[in-house]
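To the team - zinc ion complex, inputs and output below.
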Amino acid sequence: MMKRTLCGILSLSILLLGCGAAAAESAASGPRLLYQGHGSLRIVTAEGKVIYIDPYAGEGYDLPADLILVTHGHPDHTAVDLIKNRNDGCRVITWKEALTDGEYKTFDLGYASVEAVQAGNNRNHDIRECVGWVITLAGGITVYASGDTSATDQMAELGERDLHYAFFVCDGKFNMDMDEAIDCAKRVNARHSIPYHMAPGSLFDPERAELFDVPNRLIIPAGEEIMLE
Ligand SMILES: [Zn+2]
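Output:
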């Protein structure tokens, strides 16, 4: 009997040690970003909060959401129903709440600050019904998702902010073409400029991504997750 109890305590301790190690590992792993393909991104913050941007493409909708951001109303950006698991208090913020009467809003969520910025500005995307996002995570790490857009006036101002990661649409079909995307990336001048939404109908096009010729380029293939630092 005694032996069995001791054995039980030992196994429990090992189990607890194991859990402790796993928790420490996830806390130490820092924020990360999964490029799901097309215009879809998933961020897991250092606190373990899960942010989806423009759900639609690819895989990786299994993690319970804390925040879902939608830049505009086109169906390749609004598939929020893909995210079945949502934590208590999960918020969905779309361009409708983020841009009212010409005013771009900022949402402070504690684990992240989410600022709506100008987007659209082309014949397929009305600037009054589209936003991009600048997301600031703990430690000041910033991620800019341009949303479907052509060049905007605000990009020059974004260039003053030393942004960390900036995603630019570059499909040249519904939005700005590659040359304009390169020009925008130079204006915003983030530490890492990343092409996305480059080939509507497919997740990613490696040959087209190569044409995004900017000095601080980072190419993330669809389905790849990077650490944010
Ligand atoms: Zn789109």
